[in-house]
Specification:
Elements (H helix, E strand, L loop, with lengths): L9 E5 L23 E13 L4 E6 L7 E9 L5 E7 L5 E6 L4 E6 L2 E8 L8 E13 L2
């Protein structure tokens, strides 16, 4: 029996913009207020789970209280149907979407708390759901 492993690659990009002017000898300028910089994070991963109807968490935020905008792309590369369950951070709203075989869905949401995938149960329990997800979170630092 072969062992199956799953790896997750993560990449973090941080853009820093300072708004203070340099002082020159000719003319003194007032410094602008420092701008808040934008934090942009990209999280990618593989979806691989048994088609047994169990829910598996693929992303969860902990301790983030600033507003953000997120783009979540989920690709289904298998013969099974996936059900994406996305919980928003504001007002405890939940989005549920079924992703058919060999299809993809993209969600633009305000503030993501977590997202889970459930592979719908088929007659054959030896099947696996396969796919990938890509999550881009963009937020302003306070």
């Amino acid at each position: 029996m072969k062992a199956i492993t799953q790896t997750t690659r993560q990449k973090t990009v941080v853009n820093v913009t300072t708004g203070c002017c340099r002082s020159s000898k000719r003319k003194k300028r007032k410094c602008r207020k420092k701008r808040r910089f934008v934090v942009c994070e990209k999280i990618c991963g593989r979806i691989f789970q048994k088609c047994d109807g169990n829910v598996r968490v693929y992303f969860r935020t902990v301790g983030i209280h600033r507003p953000s905008t997120s783009v979540l792309k989920i690709e289904n590369d298998s013969d099974c149907q996936m059900k994406a369950i996305i919980q928003l951070g504001s007002k405890r709203k939940i989005i549920e979407q079924t992703i058919d075989e060999y299809q993809e869905s993209t969600f633009v949401i305000g503030s993501i708390k977590d997202f889970k995938i459930m592979c719908t149960k088929n007659n054959d329990e030896d099947k696996f759901c396969k796919g990938k997800f890509e999550l881009m979170i963009r937020s302003r630092s306070s």
